[in-house]
Amino acid sequence: MCLRTSVARGCWKRPSAPKKSEQELKDEEMELFTKYYMEWKGGRANVNTSYANIPRFYYRLPAEDEVLLQKLREESRAVFLQRKSRELLDNEELQNLWFLLDKHQTSPMIGEEAMINYENFLKVGEKAGLKCKQFFTAKIFAKLLHNDPYGRISIMQFFNYVMRKVWLHQTRIGLSLYDVAGQGYLRESDLENYILELIPTLPQLDGLEKSFYSFYVCTAVRKFFFFLDPLRTGKIKIQDILACSFLDDLLELRDEELSKESQETNWFSAPSALRVYGQYLNLDKDHNGMLSKEELSRYGTGTLTNIFLDRVFQECLTYDGEMDYKTYLDFVLALENRKEPAALQYIFKLLDIENKGYLNVFSLNYFFRAIQEQMKIHGQEPVSFQDVKDEIFDMVKPKDPYRISLQDLINSSQGDTVTSILIDLNGFWTYENREVLVASDNDSVADADDT
């Protein structure tokens, strides 16, 4: 058939365009989207551009294999901390501040304490320099203002406030240098490094043998983690370290004239660390560096019940059924600080045999039976569990009259007494004979007064 005939009959078709691939269609769609978006954006440019000033608030942490980025981050943090350190008052500037405060004290004198009013306070602030500006505010003056009839504050109190702030910032910077992750917390190894390098600066630890350093560091670090890491995450916020008193106790060892009494009550002192480690060695009868249940049973007065010790070895970390020094330290910290919430949490977990989050009559009876058995062994008449149970509930006054929660124990302020009654024959005996012991103490005091 000829072309003309085909056209005349209307059956001729224009050759179709080649079909576009899926990728081409997507590219075309993106091109059109970009075109229309840019037109829309251009039309709104004069409406509101504040979004362009929003600062970046998230920075991805470099991965372990991004060595260059890791190094860059470490160096930038070091430079930042150095800059912050230079912003702090040094000894010379603190001396100058004290001189200015003393020069501008406001009369009249009350006793021997120098005072300063707000007007002179501001004058000192102007002369003290830029570094001191942050301390000379109305808010700080009002915070330190007490019942002075002339509206003044104590110069010594203000200077101590400044010193405390400077010390806190210095310490925070010092701790941050050991914050390898740069996230505001220290891991166990970070805190170990901090304390190890701190030892030579503490005169009270001069007598420690270097071979004992690792045991000392373990003993010191354990207290921080036992009380400040109750969820056992393996890290502590630097803020929490600064907020608690442990660092003050540790740095108290800088005092060359620290009294013997202070050393005995300070967990971080050399005598205290040697006492704890010495007890551990004395309990370790087979000298294998670990403690079995039988060896631990001689702890303290040797009157902890077998059932409680069973629970210790069931719940705490052990190696082939024996306890290492670190686990022993947690045990000691719990039993020596039974009034503290962290210690009560440790003991409560052991007492909660059904893992229900509370103690009921069954769990109390389970532990007290062991006390009754020990009383029989020592030739004593066992005390009725019903009487003890009623006394415990009366002491704690739980929200639920049939259950005692950890919070109930903490709120009652009787947690140390309750736990002692349930786990330690000596603790129970002390509770049972408390009236006799108080009377005996009073007689002793009276005898001392007579002499």
Automatic annotation (TrEMBL):
One of its GO terms (biological process) is cortical cytoskeleton organization. InterPro entries: EF-hand-dom_pair, EF-hand_13, EF_Hand_1_Ca_BS, PPP2R3C. GO terms for cellular component: centrosome; cytoplasm; nucleus; spindle. The keyword Cytoplasm applies. Gene3D superfamilies: 1.10.238.220, EF-hand. Keywords: Calcium, Cytoplasm, Metal-binding, Nucleus, Repeat. GO terms for molecular function: metal ion binding. Residues 180-256 form the PP2A regulatory subunit B'' EF-hand domain. It is found in: Cytoplasm; Nucleus. It comes from the Eukaryota. Its main location: cytoplasm. It holds the Pfam family EF-hand_13. This is Serine/threonine-protein phosphatase 2A regulatory subunit B'' subunit gamma. The gene is PPP2R3C.
